[in-house]
Amino acid sequence: MDFSEEQIHRYARHILLQEVGGVGQEKLLNAKVLVIGAGGLGSPLLMYLAAAGVGTLGIVDDDKVDLSNLQRQIVHDTAHVGEPKTTSARQSLAQLNPGVTVIEHKMRLTVDNATSLIGGYDIVADGSDNFPTRFLVNDACFFAQKTLISAAVLRFDGQLGTFKPHAGGPCYRCLYPAPPPPGQIPSCDEAGVLGAVAGVMGTLQATEVLKEILGIGEGMAGRLLIYDALSANMRQVRVNPDPECPLCSPKATIRDLSCHRITP
Q1: Are strands 32-36 and 147-154 parallel, antiparallel or unpaired?
Q2: For position 44, which CATH number holds?
Q3: Quick check: 91 and 117 in contact, CB under 8 A?
Q4: What does the pLDDT look like over 41-80, one tens digit per residue?
Q5: Rounded distance, CA 24 to CA 100, Å?
Q6: What is the pTM of this model?
Q7: Domain carrying residue 166
Q8: Which among 44, 80, 147, 244 could bridge 202 via Cys, Cβ 3.0 to 4.6 Å?
Q9: DSSP letters of 152-169?
Q10: Residue whose C-alpha is closest to residue 34's, from 63, 15, 54
Q11: What angle separates helix 21-30 from helix 195-214, to the nearest 10 degrees?
């Protein structure tokens, strides 16, 4: 690929890295990443992926920008309150890097559209804020054999993991076999979240996406990163494939996405 002068200048700090170089930057420009949610996690995630030159970014979100979002959802601003989040994000990313193609999916991920949406991308990054969506994303990625990089945040805490069962690693259900009962774990709307913590986790998520595209470093598959902002502590725990996993084990009972039609 022949880079334009503008691209060479824009991505100079990447090209200088031995682990990236021109070949790696070309991989980024050719990559397609689907981001689920343009909220607290999706905002920094999208901004860093766009800045890095990831060629095609899909955004799945059916919500509109609310004033209460702006404390943490930095891809949006006051002028976009009331607008669809996908539109607000697309306009912000165009200002940051007009060379990136942003595709708006103004919808909620459902059992009816998950397969077709996910099938059009190389990697899926989940920044959703509810368990039914997280489990649907995981299951759809498993059946499509797509790498899933998932993050979650609540109050002062965050988690991050990469799930690649198609490459021998665990899936999200190896860690959490089923969604918790409704109401057992509060949402950010109920419990709150320190905005900068979402920024930390979304940025870490972006880093793992870039590593997967570039094929560099040690990926997070088989590990879960846990961040405690109040103690400024990060630790990792090992996650092995569950031999009883209902999705990815030899004893699997989930054969398709139909189970999500009855998920509360």
Answers
A1: unpaired
A2: 3.40.50.720
A3: no
A4: 999 999 999 999 999 999 999 999 999 999 999 999 999 9
A5: 16
A6: 0.96
A7: 31-262
A8: 44
A9: EEEBTEEEEEEE-GGGT-
A10: 54
A11: 110
